[in-house]
Design a protein that fits this description.
The complex is a heterodimer. In chain A, strands 1, 4, 5, 7, 9, 11, 13, 15, 17 and 19 form a ten-stranded mixed beta sheet that branches. In chain A, strands 3-2-6-8-10-12-14-16-18-20 form a ten-stranded mixed beta sheet. Chain A has one domain. Chain A has twelve helices and 20 strands. Chain A is an alpha/beta fold. Chain B has one domain: P-loop containing nucleotide triphosphate hydrolases (Rossmann fold, 3-Layer(aba) Sandwich). In chain B, a hairpin with a 2-residue loop joins strand 1 and strand 2. In chain B, helix 6 packs parallel to helix 7. Chain B starts with a strand and ends with a helix. The chains are: A alpha/beta, B alpha/beta. Chains A and B meet through helix 9 and helix 10 of A and helix 2, strand 7, helix 3 and strand 8 of B.
């Protein structure tokens, strides 16, 4: 049993796990452990994981940095952001811990917290307890339970009532290690009523070793709040990323979650959106660009609990070589959720005969006055468009590039930071040209 | 400049062109007329290299080079331009990026450096004004949401940008109202030199009132059944095509 070594590890090192974390995180570990012992990691026997047996990732000799041994890196020196001209309030998680630094974090409006999870829990114990672990249901997900057992720290973004944060906040998840590592990190985003904030999270593996990362994110969106959550994955082929995002949205809130898998190894992104107040809006975008044997699986579960809410999903995949894409979009419209508008679109481009796409829309509707739609296509590049471009003197390969980049455009249009959008267009172009092997502009990789 | 000899071509196993011979010299305008299904558009597609069409016999040479051996992009870079009967919409590719790529590929083929940003913008503006095109159309995705007339005008705009040696206008007049027709015709006439040639494919004589051809060919069932001077177009307008088919 793959799980046994982690069960033993947890029991054996429980005291050290606790000593290197804080009480408010520690109190949740036991219950998560009980669940994990019962359900273990998801395997392909579970319908939702049919094409992604994530348990395999843990079947390896992986270290955990339970004792919080120092990681020799100063990300402010080594990390050069791939998105220049993007003026952000910059933070780092190195593996699963917040990187504290002497750089004074300036420019944040009063009362806004962006920083380490342990510090936040100490400064705002009540707010932290009220939110941490409250959305991230692990009863049916062993990876989330596992994360809850081991996560020592993470990142918190807290925006008080009616505060608008103009400058985007950026969190860079640095992976660093000399041996294969398991990393378990938490993100917590709390936007109180009327809060407005944009967070960009970049995943960045600095070392070419095997990493298995679990990330659990909880977003709490107060009434009339706007929370934008953009993720850019630029990991090496040796990284397994298992992400679970949970939202709890109050009335008239709008949460945008957009994930660009620009370069990855093996990725599973779970989305669990819950619209708990009327007139809430959820926008979810996903773009995956795969080649080699890369694997990207997006599983989106949108739960319309209350009436008059709108959800919009757009997932696109461009798969080359032997890469695999998986998409499952589940929309649940509960019986009280009248006047629901739910739109789901999944479009996939197979640019190689060996690439594979598995897609499944799943709509469960228990209310009678709703508008729900889903559209799904998987195909090749439009031959007529190809000929049109070639007939203007553009060579076949270049025409393919233009059409592939064009295919990704509407996902990028969901991003509300112009400089980020422009930069992504550039990076995607480079990616298709094979000029972006890992990270575009990183001091360590040079 | 262009020499088509005994050309046979088929699409999806069906023979459409059954032996075409045409000679086009620099400075000439040829009109290719004929009823629906006679093979006019097939000939245009074959000249541009559309992979859906298969040439089974015959030859095409352009400036003494074998065209049938060339990829569509090389034909374009040699100076062959096809104005599409049904221009394709390409969402996500901006007209600007499309034209910059096309212009630079042409320059690369000739061993020239990419065009300077300022020169490119000026070129775009000049040609846009020549065709009386709305500025906004040029900033949008290629043909996306364009009306039928706007698409046709956009084809001639692209032609003006690329300045081809041989332009093939495939039913460019269909879907154009009279004002647009005049502008397109004026554009074609302005671009005319002693160095380049044009083949106008049309169903009607209408466009030929604005662009005077040197030769008129009538295509019927994959063959040219009559070639003559511009007076043939007038005759067709009066009598229709039936008298030629017999």
């Amino acid at each position: 049993m793959i799980e046994q070594q982690y069960i033993d590890l947890f029991q054996q090192y429980r005291a050290e796990i606790d000593n290197n974390s804080i009480e408010t995180l520690n109190v949740q570990r036991d219950a998560a452990f009980e669940t994990f012992k019962n359900i273990g990691f998801p395997t392909s026997k579970i319908e939702e994981y049919k094409h992604s047996d994530v348990s395999h990732a843990f079947d390896a000799e992986l270290g955990l940095n339970i004792r919080n041994l120092p990681i020799p890196v100063n990300p402010y020196d080594t990390f050069k952001c791939d998105v220049p001209n993007l003026d952000t309030n910059l933070h780092f998680l190195v593996n699963d811990r917040y990187y504290k630094n002497d750089y004074q974090v300036k420019g944040l409006p009063e009362g806004v917290y962006a920083g380490g999870m342990q510090d936040f829990a100490k400064q705002y114990p009540e707010i932290f307890k009220e939110h941490y672990g409250q959305s991230a249901d692990y009863s049916d997900n062993g990876v989330v339970a596992f994360n809850t057992m081991f996560a020592p720290d993470g990142f918190v973004l807290y925006v008080p009532k009616n505060v608008v944060v103009d400058k985007p906040i950026q969190l860079v998840n640095i992976l660093r290690g000399g041996v294969p590592l398991n990393v378990n990190r938490r993100l917590l985003i709390i936007g109180e009523d009327g809060a407005k904030v944009k967070l960009l999270v970049c995943d960045h593996a600095l070392d070419d070793v095997h990493f298995v990362v679990t990330q659990v994110t909880e977003i709490f969106a107060g009434e009339e709040s706007d929370i934008d959550f953009y993720e850019l994955e630029e990991n090496s082929i040796k990284v397994t990323r298992l992400s679970s995002l949970f939202t709890a949205q109050k009335g008239k809130s709008h949460v945008i979650a957009s994930n660009i898998a620009l370069h990855n190894g093996y990725t599973r992104n779970n989305y669990r959106f819950r619209m708990l107040g009327e007139y809430a809006q959820a926008t979810i975008g996903g773009l995956a660009i795969g080649d080699k044997n890369q694997h990207v699986d997006n599983y989106a579960f949108l739960d319309h609990v209350m009436p008059n809410c709108t959800s919009n999903e757009l997932f696109k995949y461009v798969l080359q070589e032997q890469s695999t894409g998986v998409f499952c979009g589940k929309i649940l419209v509960e019986k009280d959720a009248q006047k629901t508008l739910a739109y789901q679109t999944n479009r996939n481009l197979l640019a190689s005969p060996d690439a594979r796409m598995y897609a499944k829309p799943q709509l469960e509707i228990y209310a009678d006055d709703v508008k729900c739609s889903h559209g799904l296509t998987t195909g090749h590049l439009d031959e007529e468009a190809m000929f049109y471009l070639q007939a203007r003197g553009i060579p076949q390969e270049e025409a393919q590039m233009l059409l592939m980049v064009a295919f990704t455009k509407d996902v990028l249009d969901l991003i509300n930071i112009d400089s980020l959008k422009e930069r992504l267009e550039f990076l995607i172009d480079k990616r298709f040209r094979g000029e972006l092997m890992r990270c575009g502009n990183c001091a360590v990789c040079k | 400049m262009l020499s088509i000899k005994k050309l046979h071509a088929r699409v999806e196993g069906k023979e459409i062109l059954k032996g075409i011979d045409i000679e086009v010299k620099a400075g000439e305008i040829h009109a290719l007329m004929g009823p629906n299904g006679s093979g006019k558009s097939t000939l245009a597609s074959v000249l541009a290299g559309n992979p859906k069409f298969e040439v089974t016999r015959g030859s095409i040479t352009f400036q003494n080079k074998d065209v049938l051996d060339m990829e569509p992009e090389d034909r374009a870079r040699e100076g062959i331009f096809l104005s599409f009967q049904y221009p394709i919409e390409i969402p996500g590719v901006s007209m600007t990026n499309f034209m910059r790529a096309a212009v630079n590929e042409q320059r690369k083929y000739k061993g020239m450096e990419p065009i300077a940003a300022g020169d490119f913008l000026k070129l775009m503006r000049d040609k846009r004004e020549l065709l009386g095109m709305d500025k906004q159309l040029v900033s949008r995705s290629v043909n996306e949401g364009f009306s039928g007339g706007e698409k046709k005008r956009n084809e001639i705009f692209q032609m003006a940008m690329l300045n081809p040696k041989l332009a093939i206008l495939d039913e460019t007049d269909s879907g154009l109202d009279i004002d647009a027709l005049r502008i397109v015709a004026a554009g074609v006439n302005k671009l005319r030199t002693t160095e380049n040639a044009t083949i106008i494919i049309t169903h009607y004589q209408r466009l030929l009132q604005y662009i005077e051809p040197d030769f008129v060919h009538v295509l019927h069932d994959g063959k040219i059944v009559r070639s003559a001077g511009p007076e043939l177009a007038h005759e067709l307008e009066e009598k229709g095509y039936d008298w030629l088919a017999e």
